[in-house]
Amino acid sequence: MMRTTRNYRDLLARTDSALPYANDRLRLFVGAYLEYKAGAGHRPLAVLDIACGKKAVLHEFVSSDDAYHGCDYYGALDIEIGEYTSIDLNEERLSEKIRQDKFDVIFCGEILEHLFSPDALLDEAKRLMHEDSILVLSTPNLAYYVNSVLLLAGLSPLYLENSAEVKLGRRFKRLGQGHKTEGHIRLFTFGAMRDLLDLKGFDVMKITPTTTWDFLLDRLVCRISRSLAPNNVFVIRLKRAEARS
């Protein structure tokens, strides 16, 4: 496996998380967890937060009755949580680093686009899931409607990073021209994400379009189109045949 790219390490050094615009997605992630918990009765849950961030924000919303385990590239977090594992997801295997059989809920927010092999992370997540587990994930949508406009104007689309050092092809600083990159390696359209999940043996339970930035037009688009939305939050589980294998 390949080592984490320098630009992604730089991003993590500059921010608390790879998910700087978390409000809407945070709400959706927490909602999926609470819905699962409501159907689980009174039994305590095991929760894994992949790429949890230095402040492990989702930890604040997980019940004290449940076991929370965070993992990320950082050597240590800014807060105390139940369990934490430092891991380079481009180089190390999740199932080998985390010493637990299965988790009920796995969070995976804004990390797939930073990996050389998103497939490998999904395979690893499957090893940590039982037949009733859910995986909640999000990733930017390359087919975001704004990107279609930018391409027609001959500009590089948002989320896509050509250089390993700075964002290029945007022409204007407001569009990110010359800004430091965030380590995006693999990008998905909505359809490509659906194809990958099917390929990896997941059933999609719920998809919710969501915003990256707080733009009114983006919110309107999210109401009518998953394919054109800035981002989508997927709630998925193992296909029954996968769960039995």
Keywords, separated by commas or semicolons:
globular; single chain; 245 residues; 7 strands; seven-stranded mixed β-sheet; 8 helices; alpha/beta; Rossmann fold
Write up this protein.
The structure is a single chain. The protein has 245 residues and is of the alpha/beta class. It has helices spanning 6-14, 23-39, 94-97, 118-127, 145-152, 190-199, 216-224, 240-244, and strands spanning 46-50, 67-72, 83-86, 103-109, 129-140, 202-210, 231-238. It has a single domain (6-141, 187-244), classed as 3-Layer(aba) Sandwich (Rossmann fold). A seven-stranded mixed beta sheet has the order 3-2-1-4-5-7-6, with helices on both faces. Strand 4 (103-109), helix 4 (118-127) and strand 5 (129-140) form a beta-alpha-beta unit. The protein is globular and about 55 Å long.
Concise description?
The protein is of the alpha/beta class and 245 residues long.
Topology:
Blueprint: H1 6-14, H2 23-39, E1 46-50, E2 67-72, E3 83-86, H3 94-97, E4 103-109, H4 118-127, E5 129-140, H5 145-152, H6 190-199, E6 202-210, H7 216-224, E7 231-238, H8 240-244
Helix content: 25-40%
Instruction: Supply the number of helical segments.
Output: 8
Mean pLDDT: 90
Alpha carbon gyration radius: 18 Å
Residues in β-strands, percent: 15-25%
Q: Which fold does the CATH topology refer to? A: Rossmann fold
Unreliable stretches (pLDDT < 50, length at least 5) are: none
The CATH H-level homologous superfamily: Vaccinia Virus protein VP39
The secondary-structure class comes to alpha/beta
What's the total count of β strands? 7
SSE order, one letter for each helix or strand? HHEEEHEHEHHEHEH
Count of domains? 1
- Regarding CATH, which class? Alpha Beta
Task: Identify the CATH architecture.
Answer: 3-Layer(aba) Sandwich
